[in-house]
Fold this protein.
Amino acid sequence: MTDITNTPAAEHEAQLGDYFALFKPRVMQLVVFTALVGMLAAPVSVHPVVGFAAILFVAIGAGASGALNMWWDADIDRIMRRTQSRPIPAGKVQPGEALALGVALSGMSVMMLGLAANLLAAAMLLFTILFYAVFYTMWLKRRTPQNIVIGGAAGAFPPVIGWIIATGSFSIEAWLMFALIFMWTPPHFWALALFMRSDYDDADVPMLTVTHGRPATRRHILAYTIVLAVLAVGTGFTAIGGWIYLSFAIVLNAMFLLGAYRIWQRDEDASEADNYKVERKFFRLSLFYLFLHFGAILVEATLRPWGLGGW
């Protein structure tokens, strides 16, 4: 947890970009995109103004949870090379400012989403913020190597929220999109942990690479990738799938499975540089993997009214 008394004083007056960085803009992009796909893939149309406002408030809620995460994790962010340049450890924003901003924007985003869309969508957004900021950040992350498995649910809720914005209810299709992100998250982050292991060691974060070692992590990556591939290809035969999505899914999952297999078969006696190259390549592929799957779902939803998408 952040120790405000030991946080360095701001080196300069915080700029707008420093506060925006608290929102984890890269993560926010994924949240916005998957929530938008969830909303547009739903069988109920949403007025463009209502849809824009609703997705905006989902984005603000995601940014708010990112600010709360950075507030709590500032102590370990200061240790890890990957996160030392974040606004709080870099002395650009004070922890109290991040906390106040996160709490205020969380409340505002939930209330406004309830007004713009419906109460169920607002309740799901509130649950997602609390799940990420409290359950994952404050509890799971520093206590169990299953942190990213269970905590990954927080990043998987946006398409469900998007679906609820349109329909006001849950459905199997929304949970299929949830499952895609949920099963993708562990291989994605474990690949990162493989070539950034020293960071988690130094910060005493119990990632699987730290608690169980690299060979076990590689086995887990392969196992989760196999399950993910079955789920992703199977989604192609559902109401949100179609021949376009299925074509993308087959190619992408063949590449993902091959990457996971190469990670699994790595020899621990091989050079660190060789291992780093394989693991980083898989991680980079994982960044495109999810965007392309959800992009294909969006294409299917866009073409379906014209009789070109779906089955």
Notes: Residues 4-10 have pLDDT under 50 and may be disordered.
